[in-house]
Structures are given as C-alpha cells and as structure tokens.
C-alpha cells in the first residue's frame, strides 16, 4: 500500500457531522462524477479507482439521501490492472444536487457556493474529500516532497487553493496537459495539510519517516550521540505537537491554564527546538524563568489533557 493509500484509508474512516458530510460529498461529485440527462431524467455516474473513496461515496449517498445505487467493478486492461469502481445514482439526482447547491440551469457548477464551506469543519471535510477523490502525496522516504489535488477545471483548482490558504497552506497552481493541479512542496506544509484533513496517524508516520530519511542522509556529518539526541528531540516534539493539535481541534486550548498555553504556543512556533532551547525562548518572550524540568512538567500536563480528549 502506497503512502497516499494509507492516508486515504485513514481519513476515509473519519466521522463527520451532517454539514461536513454534505461538503465532502460535494467535492466527490465535482471531481469524479458525470451528469447525464435522458428523456428528462437525470443520472449521476461516479468512477473512482480507490476502493476507500468509492465506499465513502456510497455511504454518504446512503446516509444523507437514502438513495439506491448501482455499483459495478470494472477491471482495467493495462499493466497495473487496477479496478475501477462505478457508482450510478438513478433517483433523486436533481434533489441531491440542489441540496448541495451544485446545480444551475441543469448543469453542474464548477465549485460549490462559499456558504457550503463557510464553517471551518466543512472546509476541512471538503479538502479531505478532494484529496480522497484526486489527491496524492509522495512517500516521505523520497527526497522530493510533493502533495497535489488534480481537477479538470482551473476555476475549481483556484477554489481549492483558496480554501487551503485559509489554513495557512500556500498551495500553488500548475497546468499539466489537460489537468489543473493544486500542489504543496514544503514538508512542513504537507504535514499541516494532513493534519488539517484529519490524517493524524499519517502525520506522525510522515514526520517519522522524514526524520529517518533526513538524518540517514546526514549521518556521515553528524556525531552518533548528537544524532540520537536530535532524533529524540524531534520525535518528542512530534508527539507534543500531536497532543497540542488534538487539544486545539477539540476546542479546549483556551480552557487550559495560561502557563500551559504559553509552552504550547512556543512548541507550535519552534517545532525542532529542544527543551533547553524552549526554556531560553520562554524567558525571552515571557520575561519569566523556567527550568528544563518545569518545561517537561508542563508538557506532561498537556499530554494529560490530550489523553482526556482521546478517552472521550
């Protein structure tokens, strides 16, 4: 299984609110479906190679609109011989498209109205759906970091880029033959994107693999002891970042003690700093002294808050 498939397998299991389900289904319909009209009857056909995405589309149609669908599997005749999953919706098509605000004068819109992704959770769900439909990301073991989402329309690509920029993701645009691509190159921003769409396990896997690859390449230049310390620092930092992001996503960051918020903010700002380096920056930014053990104690408290959220 490729790294892209691992990411899709994870986010394809995320539980969504109804508004987020609608946003994600809208992304699927716009990126991998065709609308046909015959004798006044509308038919929606979806074709996708990834089984996780196909299952997600089928489930969303069933849960949101209770429609019956035709599912067929087509075997490609090329060397890879990947399956193509075809889902055909024969009923309530017009009602579904109107509910998702995707239909105008019997034609699919290039992108949904801003209202559909106004809420942050819905914007995340739309990006997750876009990645599930036509996205890919290189394995962090490769030297060229690259994540992309492909569309057939430049306007739609620019729409996706605008949503990504809402989350501080500086996506860029390129046209590749007849395709339009939104992409990220920086490893840190790729991690942020995966975190944004709810692929938290993939984020940790991405960071761990990237750390291993980067330090393996620099092994000759680094002392073994220093290497071990650096890896330990980065792995610890990754776990702290995961806990902090979980607290933020759970809406509990502002409920923490002010001292915990201070060290959490520092960690978000200085991702690869050791505890001693964070202590130095803490004194500079807050004009208060803190020991290494004190810093470690506060991160332990943050971890406890994250555990409470996970347990719920």
Q: Helix and strand layout, with pairings?
A:
Layout: H1 3-11, H2 18-32, E1 33-38, E2 41-48, H3 51-65, E3 69-75, E4 83-89, H4 93-99, E5 103-104, E6 107-108, H5 120-134, E7 135-137, E8 147-151, H6 154-166, E9 172-176, E10 179-184, H7 187-196, H8 200-217, H9 224-249, H10 258-269, H11 275-286, H12 292-311
Antiparallel strand pairs: 1-2, 2-4, 3-4, 5-6, 7-8, 8-10, 9-10
Helix pairs in contact: 2-3, 2-5, 7-8, 8-9, 9-12, 10-11, 10-12
**CATH homolog superfamily of the largest domain:** Homing endonucleases
Please tally the helical runs, counting DSSP H or I stretches of 4 or more residues: 12
CATH architectural type of the largest domain:
Roll
- The ordered string of helix (H) and strand (E) elements is HHEEHEEHEEHEEHEEHHHHHH
Please give the largest β-sheet: 4 strands, antiparallel
- Strand order within the widest beta sheet: 1-2-4-3
Tertiary shape: elongated
Strand content: 15-25%
Alpha carbon gap, first and last residue = 31 Å
Mean pLDDT: 87
Indicate the CATH class of the largest domain.
Alpha Beta
- Please compute the radius of gyration using only Cα atoms: 22 Å
Q: Determine the fraction of residues in helical runs and give it as a percent range.
A: 55-70%
- Which structural class best describes the helix and strand composition? alpha+beta
Work out the number of β strands: 10
Number of domains: 2
Stretches where pLDDT is under 50 for at least 5 consecutive residues are none
| CATH topology term of the largest domain | Endonuclease I-creI
């Amino acid at each position: 299984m490729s790294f892209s498939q691992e990411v899709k397998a994870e986010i394809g299991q995320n539980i969504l609110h109804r508004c987020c389900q609608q946003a994600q289904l809208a992304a699927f319909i716009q990126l991998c479906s065709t609308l046909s009209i015959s004798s006044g009857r509308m038919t929606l056909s979806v074709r996708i190679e990834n089984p996780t995405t196909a299952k997600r589309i089928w489930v969303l149609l069933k849960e949101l609109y209770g429609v019956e669908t035709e599912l067929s599997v087509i075997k490609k005749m090329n060397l890879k011989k990947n399956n193509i999953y075809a889902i055909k919706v024969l009923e309530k098509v017009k009602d579904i498209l109107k509910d998702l605000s995707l239909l105008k004068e019997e034609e699919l819109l290039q992108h949904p109205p801003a209202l559909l992704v106004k809420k942050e959770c819905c914007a995340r769900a739309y990006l997750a759906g876009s990645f599930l439909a036509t996205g890919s990301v290189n394995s962090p073991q490769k030297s060229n970091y690259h994540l992309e989402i492909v569309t057939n329309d430049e306007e739609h690509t620019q729409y996706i880029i605008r949503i990504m920029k809402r989350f501080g993701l500086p996506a860029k645009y390129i046209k590749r033959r007849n395709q339009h691509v939104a992409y990220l190159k920086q490893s840190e921003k790729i991690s942020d994107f995966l975190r944004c769409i709810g692929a938290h396990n993939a984020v940790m896997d991405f960071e761990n693999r990237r750390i291993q690859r980067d330090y393996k390449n620099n092994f000759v230049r680094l002392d073994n002891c220093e290497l071990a310390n650096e890896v330990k620092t980065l792995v610890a930092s990754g776990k702290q970042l995961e806990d902090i992001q979980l607290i933020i996503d759970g809406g509990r960051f502002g409920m923490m003690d002010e001292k915990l918020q201070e060290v959490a903010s520092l960690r978000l700002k200085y991702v690869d700093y050791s505890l001693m380096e964070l202590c130095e920056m803490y004194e500079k930014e807050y004009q208060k002294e803190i020991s290494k053990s004190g810093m470690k104690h506060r991160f332990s408290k943050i971890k406890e808050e994250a555990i409470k959220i996970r347990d719920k």
